[in-house]
Every structure is written in C-alpha cells, then in structure tokens.
Amino acid sequence: MSRFWDLTLGGISSGAIFAAVALSLVLIWRATRVVNFAQGGMAMVTTFVAYEVISRTGSYWLGFGVALVSGLVLGAVVERTLIRPVERKPPLNAVIVTLGLLVLLEALAGMVWGVTPRSFPYAFDLRGTFSPSDAFAVLSVAGAALLLLLLFQATATGLRMRAAAFEPEVARLLGVRVGRVLTLGWALAAVAGSLAGMLAGPPFISPTGMDALLVFGFTAAVIGGLESPAGAVLGGLVLGLVLSYVSGYVGADMVAFGALVILVAVLMVRPNGVFGRSGTRRV
Q1: pLDDT tens digits, 222-235
Q2: Containing domain of residue 78, as a range?
Q3: For residue 180, what are the CA distances in angstroms to 72, 160, 245?
Q4: Residue 255 placed within a domain
Q5: d(C-alpha 81, C-alpha 61), whole Å
Q6: Is residue 275 part of a domain?
Q7: Which of 117, 219, 236, 261 has the greatest count of CB atoms below 10 A from its CB?
C-alpha cells in the first residue's frame, strides 16, 4: 500500500506539469483554433532564459518571473510574425509553421547553450514523498486553471477571444480588435507554457528536453477536451496517475505506450474529450 501511495503522489506531481502544458494548448486552441506544436520549444527557450538569470543572479524567483515575461513576449511575437500571415490560409499551414518553429527553436537553443543538459534548480527542496516543490507545482497549475476559467467565463476579454476565434469577421463588425485579441491569446498561452517549463525543468534542461512533455500535455488536453481549462487539469492529473502506475507496476519503458493507449481510447470513445461538447458551438 505504501508503494501505491508513493506512486499516486508522484503521479499527481507529474500530472500537474502535464496539465500546465495542456492549459497552454487549450488557451491557444480556444483563442485561435490552432494546435501549437511549438509550445514545448517555446517553453524550453524561456526556461533557458530563466537558467541564465538564475546562474547570474542566484535568484530562482527572479528567473521564474523573467521566464513568464519572456513567454508573454515570445508568444506575442510568434503570433504577429509567423501565425498572422497564415491565419486565413488552410489550417494545415499553421500546423506546419508551428512544427517548423519547433525545429528552429531547438536548433537555435543547441547553438547557444549546447546539447549537453544543464543543471536546473527546483523551486523548493525535495524533502518527503510529496515535497514542497511538488505542492508548488500542483498549486501553481490549479491557480492558472482557475484564472483561465475566470478569463473565459467571467470577463469581456474572454468573450472577445472566443468570438474572434469562432467568427472573426462578425467580431470585427461588432468592434472587436481581432488582431490584438489573437495576439493576447498566444501571449497568455506562452505564459502557461513557460510555467510548465519551469516546473518540468529540474533537474536538467536541454534543447530537446520538452519534446516528451509536449506529447504528454497534448494527450492530457485531448483527454479533457481542447475547449476546457478544467478538462486540461483533469486530463493532466489522470494521465499523470495512470503513467505513474504503469511505470511503477509494469515498467518505465511502457510509459510512452501507455500514453498512446489512453489517447487512442479517448479518441475512440469520446473524441471531444471528457469535458468537450459535440454539436453546434455557441460563442
């Protein structure tokens, strides 16, 4: 029973990180109807920026804040320079752009920081089975999910983001600055991705270290439904728990296969996710 609880607590901790990536994917999807496959690469870059700040100043929290601000700026720049030119083109164009951006970011990071993993600190110490760093990860993601839920459900900005994503021409006629709204969506999503990068970074970071995290985050987003911040959190926690049990009872080499089985099962049984809605969507 002790092993079961250890695996459960470990699954909750890793699930929170998956949930943070899923939140960033959900936010971009709801705001712009694009799946950003470069999200892991963008999180990796902002985590390396934090690494530089921490190395030079010795302050983790300064690096944490700089990472979030860097994500905000990077998300806005990517939307303005790369996504904006293809927003009215076939959806596949945006997907190809994000895949190309992922390759570019990983190549640039390898040129700047090298391919050798760099040591990255935890926010708090690792005492106990469920450490303060684990608790910080869970609380951070829960807070981010709550803020996003309030953004979409209780603010005019959230309504504008949803309107701009589903009916951009109508939104423009109603006075919505669609371009600015889409930029905001990408910027906020990049902040959520930067949070995930900071939580997933320790103990080592590398240019390709976030690739698996993106896969698991995407799986979590599909489980919960790409429309729901709450579903992203639930999907991340469920995935984290299942993969922890698979790793502990079956073997660590079966973790990726377990994630694939879950993804396929959800797509077959409930393609819109646990919290997804089928039928006509209303803004």
Answers
A1: 998 887 788 888 99
A2: 2-269
A3: 14, 10, 44
A4: yes
A5: 30
A6: no
A7: 236
